[in-house]
Amino acid sequence: MRYKLLRTSIWIGVLALLVLALGACTTVAPAAPAPAAEAPVAEAPAAGAPTVALIYGVRGDGFYVTMEAGARAKAAELGVDFFADGPAQFQPSLQVPILDAVIAQQPDAICIAATDRQALIEPMRRAYDAGIHMFSVDTFIGDTAGDYTVPELDWMLSYIGSDNVQGGEIGCSAIIESMGGEGKFYIQTTQPGVSTVEQRVEGCEKAIDATNGAIELIGMDYNDDNAAKAAEQTAAVLAGNPDLGGIFGTNLFSARGAAQAVANAGLTGVVKVANFDAPEDAIVALQDNVVDIVIAQHPYEMGEKCIEFALAAVNGDFDSIDRRWPTGYTIITRENVDTEEAQQSIYKSE
Ligand code: T6T
Q1: d(Cα 75, Cα 247) in Å, to the nearest integer?
Q2: Helix or strand or coil: residue 14?
Q3: Nearest CA to ligand 1 atom 2
Q4: 164-296 fold
């Protein structure tokens, strides 16, 4: 009975948020796209089929695997030559050489998930200076929260990705609700300088602040996008804080590690977990009560949209490119996990 009430209250909390912000549906619709881009100073389209490259954040991450699948399918549909590459670890020092190698191949456009909001500005600008149309997918660069209309970043044609502040707030509000609105809270995240996870933390802190001190944030650890490290750090926090009530894992690896630590400590159902990202194992953890909400992004759509925009740029149709394309979420709970919509939002693993 207690469990049923708990589940219901999680669901009501999530629904309340969604109803307030966006309407009573588990799909969180994106906000209206930002105005169209101005035509950049870029070279004329190459003869023959245009080529678009996707440079993702890290290899083997279901989120980027799914994004690549969306981009590849859309490229095949629209007659675009497509290739993708990315580093073995989520690190600018490994991603920049890949970007440089891609620039040398002179594609018409690059869709890139920058692994650092500052370190990638200059290398990405090099690509633009080489006449390549530039798009951000997932993460953005700079300090303007993904606003590419500002003069210093107006060479970037679009930022295609989730509203990450909103996502963090949804996840943490749901967990706070399931904690009865009070208690100790902890955040597992990847590394500083990554726009997406930084914004998710910001959204989570908004939810915590809204409790006026009833929820205490006892700490946040950086796991370098490594689930084993996240599990180790979370285990130490659980051991030192037997009254911990809730955890937010800000991405796939952070949440995977946090969930493993909670299960290993025998605290399933006692410590509530908000799981950002939706790989298969997060869905299993949800069904096993180890995590309580899964926030699925729409990476397939990010990949598709970037190819569409890239082709528009190659064709000189800049008016049809939105500077900002938010992709929305599917919020998965134990109530709706078996629906077609929830099942379709689970990330691909290969
Ligand atoms: O959460 C996604 C992505 O949005 C983020 O920028 C990095 O981590 C993921 O790829 C999941 O591992």
Answers
A1: 39
A2: helix
A3: 251
A4: Rossmann fold (3.40.50)
Q: Could you tell me the pTM of the whole model?
A: 0.89
Instruction: Please tell me if the CB atom of residue 311 comes closer than 6 angstroms to any atom of ligand 1.
Output: no
Indicate if the pLDDT at residue 42 is higher than 80: no
Determine the length of the chain.
350
User: Which distant-in-sequence residues (6+ apart) come within 8 Å of 39 by Cβ?
Assistant: 316, 318
Q: Across residues 37-46, what is the average pLDDT?
A: 45
The CATH code that applies to domain 31-161+298-328 is 3.40.50.2300
**Given this model, what pLDDT does residue 204 score?**
98
Check for a shared fold between 31-161+298-328 and 164-296. Answer: yes
- Residue type (1 letter), 119: A
CB-based contact 215:208 (threshold 8 Å): yes
Close Cβ partners of 32 (under 8 Å, ≥ 6 residues apart): none
pLDDT per position as a tens digit, 143-155: 999 999 999 999 9
Q: Where are the beta strands (DSSP E) in 49-121?
A: 51-55, 81-85, 109-112
Taking each helix axis from N to C end, the angle separating 164-178 and 195-209, rounded to the nearest 10 degrees, works out to 40
Instruction: Identify the band that residue 36 occupies on the pLDDT scale cut at 50, 70 and 90.
Output: low
CA angle 297, 303, 307 (to 5 degrees): 150
Position in ligand 1 atom list of the atom nearest CA 194: 6
Residue pLDDT, tens place only, 286-316 = 999 999 999 999 999 999 999 999 999 999 9
CA-nearest residue for atom 8, ligand 1, is: 251
- Angstrom CA distances, 107 to 17, 115, 300, 317, stand at 42, 20, 21, 18
- The structural domains of the chain, with segments of one domain joined by +, span 31-161+298-328, 164-296
Question: How many angstroms is it from 41 CA to the middle of ligand 1?
Answer: 31
Residue 266: both structure tokens together: 């025998």
* Residue whose C-alpha is closest to residue 122's, from 154, 147, 98, 96: 96
